[in-house]
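User: What would this chain look like folded?
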Amino acid sequence: MGAGRPWCGRRRCGRSSSSARDLSDPRLGPEFIAGRIGLSRSTLYRLFEPFGGVAAYILERRLEQAYRALGDSRDLRLIGTIAHGLGFAGESQFSRSFRQRFGRTPSEVRRLARDGAGTGEGGEPVLSERPFAAWLQGL
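Assistant: Here's the prediction, encoded as structure tokens.
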């Protein structure tokens, strides 16, 4: 198995982590993914069931990418630019999802990063302690 490539049964599913380019693609959804990796939609849905479904998984990856961008004091993009760049339809939708996931608003995370708080070793943003499974149960 290649680095960063999970196996879905006997088929290779693709990269285990979506690149920023993939996350920003507005076509990113079940049909697009299924076609790209050569699986039926029903098989794809079954594979993503433990993660709360395809849409929940995509949302989680987008929110994590947004958190990293907002937590990087060197990233000077506007919050709305980050949100739109990750495929969110609007800033309010993004802010609600972000706050539900991390317990802080995007502005708070950005402010903490600029103040030097909320970062780990090497200045990397610290993601919420709230486990992914708990977040999925909250949906």
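The longest strand covers residues 7-8. If you want, I can go into more detail on any region.
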